[in-house]
Amino acid sequence: MKITDIRATTVAVPLEAPLLHSNGAHWGRFIRTIVEVETDNGLIGLGELGGGGQSAEQAVRDLRSYLEGHDPFELEALRFKIANPTAGLYNNRTQLMAAIEFACIDLIGQHLDVPAHDLLGGRIRDSVPFASYLFFRYPGLGGEVRTPDQLVAHARALKDAHGFTVHKLKGGVFPPAYELDCYRALADAFPGDRLRYDPNSVLSLDEATRFGKAIEGLNNDYFEDPVYGLEGLRLIRERVDIPLATNTVVVNFEQLASNVMRRSVDVILLDTTFWGGIRACVKAAGICETFQLGVAVHSSGELGIQLATMLHLGAVLPNLTYAADAHYHHLTDDVIEGGKLAYTDGRIQVPSGPGLGIRLDRDKLARYAALYEELGGYPYDRDPGRPGWYPTLPNDRWADPAVPLDPIG
């Protein structure tokens, strides 16, 4: 089996509402580049990557000369061919490599007629638990989320619809004291559920310490990226009695080694794109198991293709002791056959078909490619409701929670 062609299609899939985060916003849609790798036996493998609200089509197409004639089974050779660690300093290809790896694993599974999790060591669970992913958000389907009452109502609606028993609040938008009130409101409303808070690294050491100490008595999973950098996280870990987690500063094996030697965080959120593929995450999870680091699965704004990679990863990790993250329930649709994968009791079933176990809905791919052509991309690190604003690290320019959020397109 040899690769003969690669195609890339950028799509814009609507969200229920624009979602706010510490660096800006998801502007009411996810911009994702769908990758198709074709082989000489007629199979097509699927991959997916983001791009901060922008297209990665041309970067994917530029890999054609690297891929033509390559055997999809030779994944380790492909890693060095595309993402050599020194050459990669000049062309950031980690996420490109991930999308190609997804497609190759999909191809191998189809060729052998086995699901991807069988290629990764075999599943030990049939479904993967997920946390609700709560954002402050502009008005849209389901309404604005700005106040503690609105946040609790939104979390309750998600819990009723999908069965979540873990709730993650994406913070770093409003002043820390206000977001603390919101987090406490969640704890009061769902006393039996687990909680996690993620301000995306924008708090100062003092703010993060105060916030962490204030929530120590709550039913926390972990305190995720309260400050930026391994040394800053190490200081917070010494001051606050809650497990610390990161998806921003342990995203490769050198950083993981540093965290093993000088413990800064307790939980590593593995992302199948940030780490360069599913296999890299499986390797990292093995190291985490050895050194008693917790493991969770990170979400970087997935459609069904990347979600399938997260599910196959979650299926094979014995040390996945935390519910996975997913933006998925904020989407109004997907580009895979059968529509969006369903939550049942807060879990999503691991696909059992060959390869990734999902296929493209060509009509929806065309529809959302046309929507991308109509609307274009957007800068993930800007907030359309605050023109000219951007955060610093640590940040001190917060949105005003007293001001209703203005609708945007």
TrEMBL record:
Q: Please name the InterPro entries in this protein's record.
A: DgoD-like, Enolase-like_C_sf, Enolase-like_N, Enolase_C-like, Mandelate_racemase_C, Mandelate_racemase_N_dom
Task: Give start and end of each Mandelate racemase/muconate lactonizing enzyme C-terminal domain.
Answer: 148-243
Against Pfam families, the record matches this protein to: MR_MLE_C, MR_MLE_N
Q: What is its EC number?
A: 4.2.1.40
Enzymatic reactions: D-glucarate = 5-dehydro-4-deoxy-D-glucarate + H2O
Which pathway does the protein contribute to? Carbohydrate acid metabolism; D-glucarate degradation; 2,5-dioxopentanoate from D-glucarate: step 1/2
Molecular-function GO term, any one? glucarate dehydratase activity
Source domain of life: Bacteria
Q: What is this protein called?
A: glucarate dehydratase
